[in-house]
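for ur thesis appendix - Superfamily II DNA and RNA helicase. copy paste whatever u need, i formatted it the way the template wanted (i think)
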Amino acid sequence: MERQEKLMAIQERWQEKGYQKMTPIQALARPAILSGQSVYLQAATGSGKTLAYLLPLMQSVEANQQLQLLILAPSQELALQIAKVGRDWADIFGLKIQELVGGVNLKRQMEALKHKAEIMVATPGRLLQILEQSRKIKPHSIKFLVLDEADFLISQEHRADLLELHRRLPLGLQFVLVSATVDQDLLAEFQKETQEIQLIQAQGDTSQVQHHYIICHQRKKFDALRRLAHLPGMKALVFVKHIDEIDRAFDYLSEQGIACLRLYSQLHSTERKAALNQVHQGNFTFLLTTDLASRGLDIAEIPFVIHFDLATDLATYLHRSGRTGRMGQPGQVLSLVNEQEARDLQNILQPAKIDLIESIIYQGQLSRAAINSDPKDKGETDTNKSQPVKKLKRSPRQESAPPAPQKSKRKKERHKDRKNKGKPRKKDKASEG
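the 3d part is after this line
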C-alpha cells in the first residue's frame, strides 16, 4: 500500500471509530515523531496519548519481519491495552504486534516469537526473562523505544530491569516517553543520552471534573463506601493502597449486596481476566484496585474516582483522577480523608491549582459541607445523615424565649440544735467545741 493510500485508510478508520478531530497531544506529537525527534509526551490520562505515538511510529516502521518498535509498560493490563489499540490499526501498515507480559504461559510466548512481529509490547521483567532464555529476539534491530507511564517505569520497582534492558539496546534510538505528569529528573536523565528530547505538553479540558474530599476516619471508610454506592449513577474506580484492605472492603461490600470487583497483581490470571471482562461489560459499582494494576484500564465514561487512601504526591493524584472526565466528559473525584490528610491534600494539589470542595453524604446525595461546621465533629457528619442539618438548625422556641432567671443561692442555716445532714467536717467540729 502506497503512502497516500495508507493516509486515506487511516482517515477512513478514524471515521469508522467515531473519532472527530485529533486531540491536542495527538496534533502536537505527530509531526515531531514523524521527523525522527525524541519526545516526552505529557498530557492528562484519557487524552489519547497511545494513538498520539502509535500512529506516527507505525508509519515509520517497515513491514520486514524485523523487530523495530519496542514499547515498555509497567503493568500487564497497560501492555495488553496498548497491543489491543495497535492491532486496530496495524493491518493498514501490514505490521504484526506481539505482547510479552507476566501471568501468561512463558513457553507459548516464546513459541509465538516465530511470527517475527515488527512491534513488541512488553513488561520489563518478562522481556528480560525471555532474552535470557532465547535468542529469537534481536535487540540490535530496534530503532524506536517507547516508555509508556515512564515516570512509573523508572521507579524503584522497575528501575533495575529497565536499566538492564537499556544496556542491551543499540545506541541512537528514537525515544518516546509518555506520562500524565512531567518528571524533571527523568527528562534530565534522558537528555544525557540523546542530544535533545523535546517536551510536548497538552493540557486536557478538565473543567467538567469536580474534586471533593469527605472527612472520614479510617474505621468508617468501608461504611462511607457503602453509602457512596447509593449515589445516583455511581460507578467508580476505588484506589486502595494495601491488598489486604482491598480484600476486606470487597468482602464487606459484597455482603451488603453491592456489585464489587477487585483487581491487583497478585490475583491469579484467570481472576484478573474475569474481572476485566466484567469491567468492560460495565457490571460493577466499585472496582477496587491499586495504582499499578489500574494502569492500562480503559473504561469508557467512568463517572467517579474514589481515593480510599490519600495519594502521596501530585503525580499519583493526577494519574488516578484522570480516569474520569475523559475527553471533556463530566466527572467526580472523591478523597476519603481525616482532618490532617485534608490539609495534606490541599498542599499536594496547590501546584496544580485544583479547587477542592468539602462534601458530605446526605440523603443519598453528595452535598457541600456546612461552611462553619465544627472540625471536631466532621468525622461523624460523613456517616450520620442528620448531623449536618442539626448544625444548621436552631429551635424557634429557644431563639424567642427570654433567658431563664438565675436561681438564687440557698443560704446555709447552721444551728446548734439542728443536725447538719451533710457529712460533718472535723475542722468545724473542732471550732465549735
